[in-house]
Design goal:
This protein is α+β, with helices and mostly antiparallel strands. The protein has helices spanning about 25-40, 45-50, 125-140, and strands spanning about 5-10, 60-70, 80-90, 90-100, 105-115, 120, 145. The longest helix has 18 residues, at about 25-40. The radius of gyration is 16 Å and the shape is elongated.
């Protein structure tokens, strides 16, 4: 990933197992935060989508996630969650996410999120599609939240 959205995350006690290593599900939470902040950077605030006066609430759900754990993170590490758009479908967006520590890859994931309205997949709203297309074509500048 060359141009990505980056979210810094500090590892706290609650993120670790008894050995002080980051528990595997903590990475999933870190990546969820990264996806949420990517949406915010693209102008897609989830609360606004959920409270849309135009119709039923719209939200994104994870349809598929392929995760590879490469190296452990540890208590007090400062990690970076990198998120980039890799493809756009009718109702879905594919993302690549990496969790790194000082440039060292700890975890990588390929994630497909689907736009949902009223419990069913729906085409991406025009604004969302345009925002994701812009991110895909030009890449996001290296941004931190």
């Amino acid at each position: 990933m060359s141009t990505v959205h980056t979210l810094p995350v500090r590892v706290y006690w609650e993120d670790t197992d008894a050995s002080g290593l980051v528990y595997h599900t903590s990475y999933i939470r870190f990546m969820e935060r990264g996806r949420t902040e990517l949406l915010r950077t693209l102008g897609l605030v989830q609360r606004d989508l959920l409270e849309s006066p135009a119709g039923a609430p719209i939200f994104f759900v994870v349809r598929k996630m392929d995760v590879e754990f490469e190296r452990p993170g540890r208590m007090d590490d400062l990690l970076a969650v990198e998120t980039a758009v890799t493809a756009i479908g009718g109702a879905s967006v594919d993302l690549e996410q990496r969790v790194v520590r000082d440039g060292e890859l700890l975890v990588k994931a390929r994630v497909r999120v689907v736009c949902v309205e009223g419990g069913r997949a729906r085409r991406l709203p025009a604004q969302a599609r345009e925002s994701f297309l812009t991110a895909l074509r030009t890449g996001l500048s290296h941004t931190e939240c």
